[in-house]
Amino acid sequence: MDIATLLGLVVGLSLVIGAIILGGAVDVFINVPGMMIVIGGTLAAIMVAFPFEEVIQAFVAAFKMFQQRKTKARDVVNIMVKVAEISRREGLLALENVQTENMVLKKSCQLIADNADSQLIHATLAIEINGLRRRHQVAQDVFKRLAALAPSFGMMGTLIGLVQMLTRLDDPKAIGPAMAVALLTTFYGSAMATLIFIPIAAKLKARTLQEQLNLEIIFEGAKSILENNNPRLVYEKLSSFLSPSERGE
Length: 249
Hints:
Blueprint (H helix, E strand, L loop, with lengths): L2 H20 L9 H18 L2 H16 L5 H18 L12 H11 L4 H49 L5 H56 L3 H8 L5 H4 L2
Helix pairs in contact: 1-7, 2-6, 2-7, 3-6, 4-7, 4-8, 5-7, 6-7, 7-8
């Protein structure tokens, strides 16, 4: 589980809610019609902007982001070095029996075992990288659009509230509470965008870059094993992808 992502969202929401509680009347921040406008309107608009399947995929990707721990580049380098050790000790054909949940790594080991040309491996992994970019870009676009829509519907709710308030100007005591209710929808939209949608879109982008780097490491590792399966040389080449701190320098 990605503790940092979950912790960030929980702490952010807790601080906002805590500030509201410390400020006194909590019930004034609860407005069901405002929530209907912001949440319902945002979800309805995103269904219009994107195909239903892509919206579902985006929320699934966000959910998986909390479940799955990020695979570090250092771990991928170590895996490729172990693959090189197996190929050097038992031969390339032994890589057919490598057990891994990473389908790209599994496919790479199969190509190495088949003694495939490095250009074929490059073309195969290039397709994987492009597919990954496309899938992740859709999820990022969905949450970026949600981040733009939520404040817009918040402002729409505020305008609706102001119109309703102006119809009651004959009652001065009702103006203050009515204004507060009108502003709540803007608060809802801003909070959803700032605390939820924008951070999730940014984290999805970071995950995309990390997974792309991992695929590039797998490709370079596979290429190095085919050229010279010396584990030490494989590590020296792949360590270039790592920061000095990850290399222990």
